Amino acid sequence: DEMIGPRRIRALHEDVVNKIAAGEIIVAPVHALKELIENAVDAGSTSLEILVKDGGLKLLQISDNGCGINKDDMAILCERFTTSKLKEFEDLQSIGTYGFRGEALASISHIAHLSVTTKTADSSCAWKAHYASGKLAPPKAGQSAEPKACAGRQGTQIQVEDLFYNVPTRRRAFRSASEEYNKIAELVEKYAVHCAHVAFSCKKAGESGAGIAVPVSATVKDRIRILHSGSIANEMVDVEVANEQYGFKAKGLVSTANYIGKRTTMLLFINHRSVDSSVIKRALEQTYSSFLPKGGKPFIYLSLDIEPNRVDVNVHPTKREVNFLNEDEITEMICDEVRVKLGTVDRSRTFMTQS
Ligand code: ADP
Ligand code: MG
Asked: In this protein, which residues make up the domain named DNA mismatch repair protein S5 (predicted)?
């Protein structure tokens, strides 16, 4: 028998590495859209228009009226780890959002056809560029890759076409476009409640219906009324709790004991990023269980500001859950506040369900 020698070890091509990384971060169209929404909000936009084709697999388009991107930055815009929001590692501790660090656009450019049209206030025209694998790319073979001057309003429009076109296994994993659209709509609705002072619209391409539409002037309660229902909005009470020792502030609207949902609706933002927390969710459900009939579930919108140095920013972006210090204490303080509010709003009901 002949011995089999070891095979030679080789480095993967950089583009292959980036493509694998991108596919791990962006698993579904909704993950790409989340980053694009946050970028638009970070840019100071007061209006955000989203257009979706085939559940985001054919097209995700997001147009904002924010500060725009300097033409001179367009060449490096989609390279990995290029950002205008962070300079030093220490800055990680003072940054208000977390998740990707200059990786979102880069990732998208590796697994989709990406184009960006943008205009700053002091530019006389808009600029449009196409990207592939982190770099400027010609829109068609033989054309120039340089940004092209065009007409446009201040702000940025990002088009993501044919997501996962070069990741066939991922593409095949999608069962239905409407399932992906529902995830997108749910995410947009969350941000549209949270980002008061920003108008949101979200539509399926080619459909005449209004889709999601929230005007800029709508209050948080208005937004819940528009996106969810009047009967929920009418049964919401304000909650607010803060604690210096634990470095947090929580503000939100929660349903009273008069609202009995079939399942918990939880709109949770930590430092303005939509996240999941099974710890907070379960604790609040527990709190509500003594106010609601068996099986009744609440509607909760909660915005939690936690001192950034208490939040684990190094959690992998695919983890939708977050870690922060004193999670149990903070959760308990929020539940206490909710309990007090539920008690004062409807004593009679509390009395009834407890007896
Ligand atoms: P990050 O948001 O972590 O900086 P991204 O890859 O998401 O990384 O974006 C890279 C940079 O591109 C941002 O720092 C910002 O300067 C710019 N940018 C992205 N989207 C927009 C937008 N809609 N409006 C203005 N600037 C944007
Ligand atoms: Mg970003």
From this structure: 224-343
